[in-house]
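User: Hi! I'm working on a homework problem where we have to compare a predicted structure to a textbook description. Could you give me the structure for the chain below?
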Amino acid sequence: MAKFGVGQPVPRTEDPRFLKGQGHYVDDVNLPGQVHGYFLRSPHAHAHVHIVGLNAAAAAPGVLLILTGSDVDAEGIAGIPSFIPPMAFGAPPPKHSPLNPILIRDRARHVGDLIAFVVAETLDKAKDAAELIEVNYEILPAITSTADATAPGAHLVWDEVTANTWFTVERGDQASTDATFEGATHIIRRTLVNNRVSANAMEPRATLIDYAQATDHATVYTEVQAPHSQRTHFSKVFGKPESHFRVISPDVGGGFGMKNNLFPEDAACYMAARRLCRPVKWVADRTESLMSDSHGRDTSTKGELALDAEGKFLGLRIATNHAVGAYLGEAAPVPAGLGSTLYVGVYEFAAVHISVNTVFTNTTFIGPYRGAGRPEAVYVIERLVDAAARELGIDPIDIRRRNYIPASAMPYETKVMSVYDSGEFDRITDRTVALADINGFPARRKETESRGKLRGIGHTYFIEVGAPFNDRMSLHFDESGGVTIVAGTHNHGQGHQTV
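Assistant: Happy to help. Predicted structure tokens:
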């Protein structure tokens, strides 16, 4: 095979500097006159919050500024919206889409909610001053269960929202699906949970903002996956032209979708830098990251699979509660919206009905994470297929083969109106079975058991939504033979330098 043929392994050229500790991250950037910020956060999932004393904290050594929700109000900043509408995924317009407050006004809605931002000459002085802020909490009932968020009598996260539901997206045909289930020989039912996870990036979130009063421009150093979008978001939240913001994102130590948001901490740093006319830096510690980074997954699903006597799939019925947390992230509807198109997997069905309900809970907000809703959906259908194989006594690979969409049917429109342009699912299965040496598994398991250990094997077929985004690249050659590549995407682990 050619040395430079497509698919050949190529050593990454950026790795040596990372392995030698020569990466350059936001926390490595330090500017003259830089000051440090620290956030006072709510210890309660739901509470009325009353700040009763700031004087001692404001008078503490090294303290330069304390911001609270009243300061945000005074500047006329409503909060941070979700920048992608649910209607992009076929959902109806929500009755109420609450903003993510930069600093809360009177009510904390999750543990870690931001109460005050203390800026001081050093981080330790900011932390010491935060401990002097006097706060009274009136603890309120909280709802943290995704499954129970819509139950009758559940406590409301937002008084303006009925039954804690932001929006519901439905796909398929409920009437024909119900009729199909009536005629089925077998019905497999499972309640499945995709637990909440934290991206927990090796590099915590960090922001350093340098404000130039003379020109009303800000340079934002932040570990964001999409610098162009971040510039747009700052512009929309603060009502200024995009040209007033320059966003610099150096090396990023893990993004995973979580670092796509404009977080309240970023906005608070900008407000503080603008008031002090000094660079303001904030770096999360691990505890803050676990509390306040956008989380992923968090779904509770009731899934039903209808089959005939020979194990042929007839119908699929899905009802999912998909948490969005207490507030809405930059891409809040994406996991539920994209995921709703993939519950059907790679299988043929006569009828399908899918209902995905996005729900508010007194928890950190949910955002795209490692697949943005698609893994959650694939998990559900593949668990149902495995359960059917066990209950009907059919080999798990064989039951999948019986129900694959055939290559001859491509392009294929599913019952949820997704279009698969191509797919040879049988052929890929053949190759996978050979590579995994499925036939040799019983002998491997027996050998493992002889050593007092257990060995298992799993089966799944994953299909992905391709090309939901697009971007532009341009190449410029100069007279010396050099080339400059201008790319709109940001390298946060994908190996742009090597490519």
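For your comparison, note the following. The mean pLDDT is 93. The first strand starts at residue 35 and ends at 41. Good luck with the assignment!
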